[in-house]
Amino acid sequence: MDLPLTSQNGDAPAVVSEQRLSAETLRRRGAVLTGEAVGDWPWLRSAGRGLIVSGLPGTLVTLDGLRLAPAPSGVVDLTLLPLGLIDSARLSASAAGVAQGAGALSGAVDLLLAPVGGGGRLLAAAGGQAGRGIGVVDLQLGNDFGWVGGGYTRGGALPGGATNQDRWHLAARFQQDVGPVQLWGRGMFARRTEGGNRADWHDVALGLSGGTRWQWRLAVSDGGHREAAGARSRLTQARAVVSGPTGLILPGAVEPISLAAGAEWRRLRLAAGVVRARELFVEAAVPIVQDKPAAENLLATLGVRQAWLAGKSETLWQAGGRWEAFPGIALRAQVARGVDDFATLSGMSRSVGMIATPAFVPGFALTLDRRWQSQGVSQVQAWDVSASWRGRVSDGAQLALTALVTHHDRADFTLVPVPRFASLLRATLETGPWAVSAGWRTRTALAGGVDVSVERQLAEKLRLVVSVGNAGDVQPAGRQGLVQLVAGF
């Protein structure tokens, strides 16, 4: 069995509503902007050029675990972050104050940057939407130690419809082992122009990591967003974490307790003011009973973070558990408290759910979660359901089916309107060098509709993807057609 680690040790415990987006899914979606692709997920709603969970404030966006600088309004502008640089994404809906600190009040979107060691890549795309042209050129040159790249994007979709934006970006990432220590870094700059509006965004990070049984990581980063009108924001942060398994094993368990502890410092400047935060945190994943009848794996997750910010002292905490009664069937629950960046708003999140990956249905996975979130007068109650299956349907052909559904029973006094029902259904058939994918979106962050893509593997490292988004849609966003050529070298 796999022991869920603490959120600081590689992967968050599976006790909250959570979904993942693979690089393959992002490519076949046929999107141009990061927010356009990620916004398909049912519990995310649009907030300007960003996304928030269930219409609630306090959705944190991170890149490889480090916060990204938001716009002066406080929401990360996902039209500036190049989609071609994103390898995958993980979305969670719940207060994540212990794992991420103040500001992660309603959930988190964790984006993963294209990895080191993949070599070079060229992405070229052209198309149109609502009579407006779309174009993308993105080139990365890399080796085993890192990559550098740059590109240009024209157009893309927002909730209000097609855009005329132009965006240039430069980016780099490196990773190098120096004895027992790994040194890594990244840097990105992007500029967006649309009519008389312009925005500049940057993110630079540097880190060290090492250790075997006990792993340690140090990271510092600086990011900022500046608009032509003079509005600007900036985020500087430093983070240190130590994590790993202890030698303590409870009488009914077979694996040790895992611990993570660390400290974080941040300075955040927004339109609302400047706040400095100092935080200390500790988390534990505690196996209680394992390998017993009706208790294949029973564990608890506990965490607390003390934050000093905006002249206040706030205690953030979470407690959860997971009970795998039989192999492939598990129940999970969590309760957590979070606060916003200025400690002016606090909130509670509770969730209970089930995970099913039965061995008698190979390739099938089901999650069902009931979620309650409260922030001041805002109240949200929702069901989150995900189901997926992947298997062989004939010699040389595989079929993948995915269904994501969120049903809001209650959404009172949210920042933006929240639909009662939102869903994403997707089917992909792969046979030989061909892959055909069709998705149906209902009341997601962008206009709902049918998305269709056809992918052809032209050579070992050469793919052609033709996609039509919002097919049959009569909303102002209109249909979007895109032809992508992805080449590796």
Features:
mainly beta, Maltoporin, Chain A, single chain, 489 residues, 3 helices
How would you characterize the overall build of this protein?
- The chain has 489 residues and is mainly beta.
- The protein has one domain: Maltoporin, Chain A (Beta Barrel).
- It has helices spanning 23-29, 34-38, 97-100; strands at residues 17-21, 44-47, 50-53, 59-63, 66-67, 86-93, 107-113, 121-129, 132-143, 146-154, 157-158, 161-162, 166-178, 181-194, 197-210, 215-227, 232-245, 258-270, 273-292, 295-309, 312-326, 329-339, 346-356, 364-375, 378-394, 397-412, 421-431, 434-442, 449-459, 462-471, 480-488.
- The two termini are 38 Å apart.
How would you sum up the major sheet?
22 strands, antiparallel, barrel
The tally of structural domains comes to: 1
CATH architecture: Beta Barrel
Distance between the termini: 38 Å
What share of residues are in beta strands? over 45%
Q: What is the molecular shape?
A: globular
Count of alpha and pi helical runs: 3
CATH topology: Maltoporin, Chain A
Low-confidence stretches: 1-5
CATH superfamily: TonB-dependent receptor, beta-barrel domain
- Cα-based radius of gyration, to the nearest Å: 22 Å
Mean model confidence by pLDDT: 90
- Helicity, as a percent range: under 10%
* CATH uppermost class: Mainly Beta
Q: What is the strand tally?
A: 31
Report the structural category: mainly beta
